[in-house]
Amino acid sequence: MTSTIPLLEPDPYVVALDEVAALDAQIAMLSAVRARRVTEARNHLHRQAPSDTSTGGPVWSTARVERVELVTELALLTRRTEHRTATLVDTSTALVDRLPATLAAVTSGAVSWEHAEMVAKHADGLEGEALATYDAKLASLAVEVNPRQLEKKARHEVELVQPSTAVERAENAAATRRIYVDPAADGMACLTLFAPAPEIHAIADRAIRLAAGLKQGGDPRSMGHLKVDVLTDLLLNGETSIPGATRGIRGRVHVMVPAMTLLGVGDEAAILRSYGPIDPATAAQLTAEATSWRRILTDPISGRILTTDPRDYRPTARMIDHARLVHPTCVFPGCTVPAEQADMDHTEDHAYGGDTIPENLAPLSTEHHRVKHHTRWQFIQNVDDTLTATSPAGHAYLVRPQGQMKPAPRQLVALVAATAAAATTPEEELGDCPF
């Protein structure tokens, strides 16, 4: 008599995990292919030798025009931010041109794209034998650690192969300090402060100490909430110690609230400038505490903001305000810089006959203003407040007006028209009317 041993079914959990790891390897392989294609695109653009298209001011080098055209083009095609696209371009070209060992590791699927970004980021400034040693060592280490661990090792290896550049690299890094805002869900947002590590740790330490003091005093809020609240209070109500800085400046926000919503009979959301819709309670609180008001007229049929300003050589304050209301952010596709921080641009260049009228004005961030004038990007304003942006490669993007309100309901428009018609005075009763 013979017996058979039943075959064990593979654990589906283990199978799923193995499939994830296999897919990650495939993604890495495709990332290596993408790196080569990005580098090819850069090389093809370089052969085109695009030149500066501006009519005045400092002339951009061909290399700068190439860089800006490639990054803006890829950012919109791949729906990335320009910052992330620049990282993609820099990592891709570094792997293909300078880091063969790391590229081979990514191509084999042994190392992820996130690892490659870390290797490329810290390879900047290395040359010759130092670069080759660094590349070989990091490609080997990347197989054993995660990207964050690899970054620490990368900094260490850079110090070993080129220690004399540490101060210079720190100074260059400090020159990139900045803050930026990212909107989140449910009326929240993230404020990122990118600054030298000592200052960041000192800020965090101060928040912890202040929060701890309040907690010891019996404040019921959690430490996490207290740290956020004390920093917010310091930023909004504290005074700067920087010599020459204006004291007493307070934060300012812009909120567009439809009158019917404010009266409690409409349901259209209020709009927080540079963020989007906010809840009625928050809008009511902001409007109750507002220090000033402005009435904005909109077309009840289309929702367009109306203006009656005449033409002028320079944009008037009302023209600029109108353009910022229609487009609360820079009109370059994908840009989120607030209109108040942007330049006011003649869409049709004034040097080529463009009129200084609201229909030819739009906000462009300082950087994208330069892009428009120095590269082959083209912009056209349409009659409905939209703009058409055409890239150097010929791709067209429609930029919609974010400041536009919803048209009034058809029933309301019809009711107002009927009421106005019923109230019209016959011509024979207007004989003595002076106007």
Brief rundown of the structure:
The chain contains 15 helices and ten strands.
Describe the structure.
The structure is a single chain. With about 425 residues, the chain is mainly alpha-helical. The chain folds into four domains: about 10-175, no CATH class; about 180-235, no CATH class; about 255-290, no CATH class; about 295-420, no CATH class. The chain is built from 15 helices and ten strands. It has a three-stranded antiparallel beta sheet, covered by helices on one side. It starts with 11 loop residues before the first helix and ends in a 13-residue tail after the last helix. The model is unreliable at about 310-315 (pLDDT under 50).
Keywords:
single chain, about 425 residues, mainly alpha, three-stranded antiparallel β-sheet, 15 helices, 10 strands, about 50% helix, about 10% strand, globular
Which H/E pattern describes the elements? HHHHHHHHEEHHEHEEHHEEHEEEH
Strand order in the largest sheet: 3-4-5
User: What is the share of helical residues?
Assistant: 40-55%
Shape: globular
Let me know the largest β-sheet.
3 strands, antiparallel
Tally the beta strands.
Answer: 10
Q: Please mark out the parts with pLDDT under 50 across 5 or more consecutive residues, or reply none.
A: 308-313
Query: Given the helix and strand composition, which structural class is it?
Result: mainly alpha
The number of helices is 15
Q: How far is it from the N-terminal to the C-terminal residue, by CA? A: 117 Å
Q: Provide the β-strand percentage band.
A: 5-15%
